[in-house]
Amino acid sequence: MSGDRARLAEARVVVVGAGPSGLTAATALRRAGVGTVTVVEREQHAGGVPRHTDHLGFGMRDLHRVLRGPAYAARLAEAADASGVDVRCASTVVEVGGDHVTLADGTRIDADAVVLATGVRERPRSARLVPGDRPGGVLTTGAVQQLTALHHRDVGTRAVIVGAEHVSFSAIWSLRHGGCRTVAMVTPLLRHQTYAPLRWLTAGLRRVPVHTGRTVVEIVGRPRVRAVRLDDGTELACDTVVFTGEWVPVNELVRRAGATMVPVSRAPATTSGFHTSVTGLFAIGNLVHPAETADVCALDGRHAAESITAWLTGRRWPDAPAPIAIDDPDGAIAWAAHTSRGVTVRSASFGAGMLELLAPDGTVLGRSRRRRLVPNRAVVVGSASAAADGWAPATGATGATGATGAATVVALRRRG
Amino acid sequence: MVTPATGATGASTSTAGPTYDVAVVGGGVVGCAVARALSHHRLSVLLLEARQDLGAGTSKANTAILHTGFDATPGSVESRLVARGWHLLRAYAPTAGISIEDTGAVLVAWDDEQAAALPALQRKAEANGYAHARVIDAAEVRELEPHLGPGVTGGMVVPDEHIIDPWTTPLAFAHDALANGATIETSFDVATVDVGREITELVATDGRARRARFVVNAAGLQGDRLHRAVGLDGFTIRPRRGELIVFDELARPLLRRTILPVPTSHTKGVLVAPTVFGNVMLGPTADDIDDREATGSTAAGLAALREKGRRILPALLDEEVTAVYAGLRAATEHSDYQLGTHPDLRYVVLGGIRSTGLTASMSLAEEALSMLAEAGLELEQRAEVVTVRRTPLGERDVRPYRSGGRIVCHCEHVTEEEILTACSEPLPATDVDGLRRRTRALTGRCQGFSCWAEITALTGWDPAR
Ligand SMILES: Cc1cc2nc3c(=O)[nH]c(=O)nc-3n(C[C@H](O)[C@H](O)[C@H](O)COP(=O)(O)OP(=O)(O)OC[C@H]3O[C@@H](n4cnc5c(N)ncnc54)[C@H](O)[C@@H]3O)c2cc1C
Ligand SMILES: Cc1cc2nc3c(=O)[nH]c(=O)nc-3n(C[C@H](O)[C@H](O)[C@H](O)COP(=O)(O)OP(=O)(O)OC[C@H]3O[C@@H](n4cnc5c(N)ncnc54)[C@H](O)[C@@H]3O)c2cc1C
């Protein structure tokens, strides 16, 4: 429709965050004909987290190849440039609404839609309330990666890693780049949470002991960390402690904008089209589902481009997206959120079950096979199309301007 | 850091270097305030601090409230100096770049016994010369602070309690003193004090010596030991540890003013207070301990705080924590400050400055000067006093990032230039803690997840320290 094309050509979208999701959304929006697409990024360079995850495993689902993080980040940034996206680095957004963003120096950029793609970070030691001294040498994986991959700095010599998710095992690599040996991993869970091959490649090959079912109850040392003490009394001597995982969405902007949040994940509630409860404001990437791999985030961006163009060409904003309700008698499921792959689910404990997505009238919209549940590992239920809740881009030629509500995902049910 | 002494009496030189008119031992908020006040007179002034940096002891780890002194013991030295200190620091802060906010406080009663104690507290406030405290009923308390937990039985408003930037305060005093000719030496840990007939020699643990005619003891937690080194007795410090939890800025809308408990004789109790940096603070605990260095946090302390916090402001506990720390109050066997003048020894002690020393810092300095005069020091105001203004760190102030500098610490919006300035100013940051207190860098929710690597590149510091 030429009317739509003209509207898109006149439209302006501002994307906050130049990680995989933001860059991919921006590129897709330009390719869909949106006139002005600006990406605002607070770091000096575009690319987001993959800029410093210097190992293989990026790009499988979105680019259909296997790249190292930095190469992947560079490719996404080049694609954005090539498609005419205006990427502004070293520029921080301090406030957003559905129709504007405000930069640190007070500049206001008006927009027809705003897309938040601010990613996740790891919960640091203080927020985990780990008691003890406050010495140096206590880091997160993100900091270790930036030190070693971006600044080529050494970290300590003997590290204890807190956590046993994928990222915890990848931290072993990053530490090794910084000349640091991992002497132990500690997790309160009864098992590690990664895939056997990753565990074998990292901890297994280097005979790193994993202390399962244990918590760190004290950090010892000043001015530099000397040891950590576990709840069974064990003292692990080290000069570096890395707190890994425990993802927290970078949610300050979206919260201040007044969006409805999902309490457990601390992410904004969205539709499957990534609309938040604030008209004009979309949220994508790991801000919405802490945390998926980069390619899933990138595909969010591509997927969101459809709902964004639908909005720009006059479709109604869906009725207030709310958190997906969880119906699970054992309380094993922590939260569920929309991703480009469908609804992703996180469990709080190890277990198994069959998962179902429900519409308001109880209709089952999607169903998983019986799956093993591992804390912090994604289980995807249903496909986004089955779960298309209301914003549905034109299926017929006309008339799809309103939310039907018929297929809205409202709940996730677990059956033992 | 040594700058030439420029006192009017001049500094006579010997093997131990010049003889200063006054040496102040201890570069906490109290010692820095004293050095500043002295530097405005025609005197040569030396400030000695054991640590690498100023304000790095108890003065950095408190609840940062500028107290009216409404709950002090009427008639005590503390009552008088807190009331006076409130006025002095409130007037000085804006001129020096110390952020301060006029939030007020509400004291909340949680049972009938506490509610019954409120009228007496109001009378006590009046006896302390503070006339604006007013008892209110539970409904009014709720209206003032709608996020309070259930069970409020009454309250008392204390409209003049302020919150203040505790980190900038000692640094502002010290830079002011420096600009007015004082000499400041850090990493100088006074071990022995040799009081001669006219000159006192102060010898550090590493053997270095400094000389002065008069000595002021502002050694905080070590005040009693220094006092004994001079040959005196009379008070012993038993640290009272206070643990604190700081919550993310997103918690700030949960309260408008400082929420105080009904105090006991042992402690002011656990409060919830906004900070000038835009966070919310919960604490402190009060544990008497023996170790004067034990500034670590404990599982028991944090659990107790969370339990209290949940009762006071339930929604607070859903917010992310940005920092946990502990400070040690210099408690003694006495309830009041331990101030003393010893003309024969040309020595003044400011001891036992327990839980109000930030507020009373400037009045304590005034007091120290009159005590020194009593001990025989001639005080003559300088004709010209240099004023120094720092860049304020408060969230309500116009901070440098707003004029477009490159932001390095994203959580707290700290620019590259601020970080470089902090590392090169006259009394520079030499470690992470010093940088935190000078800029707020690394004090936010991510704790260096996104900026620590960049900061080590800018400062050249060892990433693991
Ligand atoms: C330490 C760590 C290791 C990881 N390892 C892997 C891995 O090995 N493989 C994998 O697939 N995934 C990994 N991840 C997951 C990672 O989150 C995703 O790979 C992916 O980067 C998420 O993309 P995103 O677009 O959602 O966010 P991000 O890549 O996090 O990008 C968000 C961007 O937003 C910017 N931003 C935030 N706030 C503002 C603001 N106010 N103004 C302007 N800009 C802003 C940030 O600077 C950042 O560049 C890891 C994550 C972390 C933290
Ligand atoms: C948990 C807590 C909460 C508090 N809340 C408040 C509040 O809200 N409002 C308020 O007004 N006050 C508050 N206080 C009190 C306030 O922090 C202190 O009273 C004040 O910081 C004391 O300052 P100071 O200079 O005496 O001590 P310090 O800051 O301890 O300074 C003493 C300095 O002397 C140095 N020193 C010691 N011995 C030697 C030596 N031999 N040679 C050289 N240097 C030496 C030390 O290294 C130290 O830097 C609180 C205190 C605590 C612990």
Topology:
The complex is a heterodimer of chains A (416) and B (465).
Chain A: H1 2-10, E1 12-16, H2 20-31, E2 36-40, E3 56-58, H3 60-63, E4 67-68, H4 69-82, E5 86-88, E6 93-97, E7 100-103, E8 108-110, E9 113-116, E10 120-122, E11 138-140, H5 141-150, E12 158-162, H6 166-177, E13 181-187, H7 196-204, E14 210-212, E15 216-220, E16 227-230, E17 235-237, E18 240-243, E19 247-249, H8 252-256, E20 261-262, E21 267-268, E22 281-283, H9 294-312, E23 325-327, E24 333-339, E25 342-347, E26 351-358, E27 364-367, E28 371-373, E29 379-381, E30 411-415
Parallel strand pairs in A: 1-2, 1-9, 2-5, 9-22, 11-18, 12-13, 12-18, 13-14, 23-30
Antiparallel strand pairs in A: 3-4, 6-7, 7-8, 10-19, 15-16, 16-17, 20-21, 24-25, 25-29, 26-27, 26-28, 26-30
Chain B: E1 13-14, E2 17-25, H1 29-39, E3 45-48, E4 65-66, H2 77-96, E5 100-101, E6 105-109, H3 112-127, E7 134-136, H4 138-144, E8 154-158, E9 162-164, H5 168-179, E10 183-185, E11 190-195, E12 200-204, E13 209-217, H6 223-229, E14 240-247, E15 258-260, E16 271-274, E17 280-283, E18 287-288, H7 299-312, E19 321-329, E20 338-342, E21 347-351, H8 357-374, E22 407-409, E23 414-415, H9 416-424, H10 432-439, H11 452-459
Parallel strand pairs in B: 2-3, 2-13, 3-10, 6-15, 13-21
Antiparallel strand pairs in B: 1-2, 4-9, 5-9, 6-8, 7-8, 11-12, 12-13, 14-17, 14-18, 14-19, 16-17, 20-21, 22-23
The complex binds flavin-adenine dinucleotide (2 copies).
One flavin-adenine dinucleotide binds next to α1, β19 and α8 of chain B.
